[in-house]
Amino acid sequence: MSTPVTGCRLAELTGLPLLSTTTTCPAPQAAYRRLREGWGQVVPVDLDPGIPAWLVMGYREIRAVVRDELHFSRDSTHWRLLQEGRISPDSGLLPIMAPRDNAYFSDGAKHRRLRAPLVDALAGLSEQHMARLIRATCDRLIDRLPADGPIDLVAPYAAQVPMLTVAGLFGIPTDLGERLQACVIALFGSGGDAQALFAEMEAILTGIISAHRAAPAADLTTAFLDHPNHRDDAEVLASMLLTLGAGWETTQVWIAQTLRIMLTDSRFAAQVRGGHLGIDDALDHVLWTDPPMANQLTRWATSDTVLAGQHIARGDALILGLAAANADPWAGAQDRIDTGNRAHLAFGIGLHACPAQRASRLIARTAVETILHRLPDARLDIPAAEVPLHPSPWTRGPAHLLVTATRTRN
Ligand code: HEM
């Protein structure tokens, strides 16, 4: 792979680099550099062995793809390998790539119709209400951390805060929010009991919809139910599942990566303590250097085309390499604390760009602030270089952050 290869067809390639090597290797920037040297800005990769896709690594190429939904669709019914029956029914790719009837997997007028309720409902959330809910959730989770011995800041904290707060924004009671959280973790983890877990999530949310029909409230569920663009309760349910699913892993990785930087990079710890950097600056730095969705799903080519010299065939899958694009030499250098600059691609851009940027920033900022406030002397128990990574082809974040800390009272 050391010689540039352009003009190749995905279907003819074998022995491609696995996409997950970019999220699990110790030095992703070096990996991106090698891939760029070998293939250019659009790189053939395997999602799973024998399941090829294109990784779009160029900042400009990603912008071009997301702005052209006619040729690069969000609708996974275009996926040729799926049409040809080459994706095994128990493939771990299906839960996140199989077609679903929601904004995420739609194009054109249908996308705009189904996206509007998400944008409108999220915009209608009061900052004070969100802040109170998030802070209470963070405090409750910290109160539950073990009093003695090492504390993991990922599974019992960073991974819990986003789902429990977004559930709270839907007016879902805490016990059911915790059940939804358990279902989502199991869904993404194993796959064996995926259908039963998915049915349980649907049943919980259907109950919430009925309760809100009977007694409307000032929350996301009622905003979804009242939105004229939702044609029936099935669409409301699909929008709820999408919102809960899209916010979970992204925000948890953002929180965990920011905590990791605070714990391992003395520049950050000292400058935040001294007031030279705000938490938002640290959050922004992570969005540049370690964007939560390192590799964003997916666009499908609707016709044969050429992108950065590569011949893309109709039905090929294209993964948006957001982390790679942030490090694109064309887009600027990486090795600096980049305060105030939000031109990164971490939230995507264009028609499908994340509609929850304000809410997720408030969740991540509050989660990090609360740790700094409640565990002020937290120290990592292992050397920075040994922090284990969560295995995923899409996100790159710590699997654990074991710290020793004295917990202060709320
Ligand atoms: C409360 C938390 C969050 C919620 C509810 C949420 C929700 C969503 C939804 C519903 C979409 C699909 C929009 C569409 O297809 O039109 C989306 C897209 C996306 N979100 Fe978020 N999100 C959250 C947090 C985050 C975070 C923290 C990140 C990363 C920093 C992120 C990155 C993205 C990206 C990259 C896309 C797709 C862009 C594309 O494919 O072009 N999201 N989000």
| Topology order in helix (H) and strand (E) letters | HHEEHEHHHHEHHHHHHHHEEEEHHEE
Radius of gyration: 21 Å
Largest sheet: 5 strands, mixed
- CATH domain fold name: Cytochrome p450
Number of domains: 1
The oligomeric status of these chains comes to single chain
List the helices and strands and how they pair.
Blueprint: H1 21-24, H2 28-39, E1 42-48, E2 51-56, H3 59-66, E3 72-73, H4 80-83, H5 94-97, H6 108-123, H7 127-144, E4 151-152, H8 154-158, H9 161-169, H10 174-189, H11 194-214, H12 220-226, H13 233-264, H14 266-273, H15 279-289, E5 295-301, E6 305-307, E7 310-312, E8 317-321, H16 322-326, H17 357-374, E9 379-380, E10 402-404
Parallel strand pairs: 2-8
Antiparallel strand pairs: 1-2, 3-5, 4-10, 5-8, 6-7, 9-10
Helix pairs in contact: 7-9, 7-17, 9-10, 9-13, 10-11, 11-13, 13-14, 13-15, 13-17
The site of protoporphyrin IX containing FE (HEM) has 31 residues, from helix 6, helix 9, helix 13 and helix 17.
